[in-house]
Amino acid sequence: MSECTAVLMDNSESTRSGDYVPTRFSAQTDAVNLLAGAKTQAHPENTVGVLTMAGKTPQVLVTPTQDLGRVLNCMTEIDVEGSSNFSAAVQIAQLALKHRQNKNQRQRVVIFVASPIKEDRETLVKIAKKLKKNSVAVDVVSFGCEADNDEKLAAFHEAVNSNNNSHLVTVPPGPVLSDVLIGSPIFQGEGGDFGGAGGAEGGAPYEFGVDPNMDPELALALRVSLEEERARQNVVEGTAGGAG
User: Fold this and answer.
1) What SS3 state is found at 112?
2) Is residue 191 exposed (0-12), middle (13-18) or buried (19+ Cβ within 10 Å)?
3) Pairing of strands 106-113, 59-65
4) With CB atoms counted within 10 Å of each terminal CB, which end of the chain scores lower, N or C?
């Protein structure tokens, strides 16, 4: 079944931090680009939209679309500012999903959290229960402020999860964010269809869930993006090792 996904990006001041290479925001951007590519490739009717969570108010940058180019292009228009408004962003995402063109699509929200969540545990549980009631699956990527958010996000995940349709992935500093997520249930999908459709030589899944024969330019762009991220990571680790 096809799916409509709203991706919530954390563009708060906290994402300027360089504890993820090169910054939390840039690492997040690469991960969202890869995720959007995997989602749109996994099913011809899948759609992906992008929202920001910080600034004066959370904003819809791209309404759910099958056009991957629109998703990739909107990344250059995001300003890093203010603090993240988790509850307002989720409400707006839910509205965007509610007004999706294809009502037969399953609904999913993917939330990137890289700053402290202001809402208390009870508020998050209430939001989660509403999402679950409306049949919205939620994946959460927690990075950068894991210690601050772990307890709250665990309670949120427990309340929203229905038949294991939602996932919480915590990524500590060190590994490349995109690398971790590609191997996670967020990329693999409930049935393991993302990255596993068809299969490349030897039965291995397509890299990033993209068939290079069907879309060689996209496959190359995603691979280059990830290799650049790994190269930046190696430079930083080499510098740190030299300093030690």
Assistant:
1) strand
2) exposed
3) unpaired
4) C
As a whole number of angstroms, the distance between CA 242 and CA 240 comes to 5
Strand partners of residue 112 = 141
Kindly report, residue by residue over 13-36, the tens digit of the pLDDT: 999 999 999 999 999 999 999 999
Question: Stretch 58-80: mean pLDDT, rounded?
Answer: 95
Q: 170-174 — which CB contacts under 8 Å span 24+ positions?
A: 170/142, 170/143, 170/146, 171/141, 171/142, 171/143, 172/143, 172/146, 173/19, 173/20, 173/143, 173/144
143 three-state secondary structure: strand
Answer whether 78's CB lies under 8 Å from 52's CB. yes
Position 87, amino acid: S
pTM: 0.81
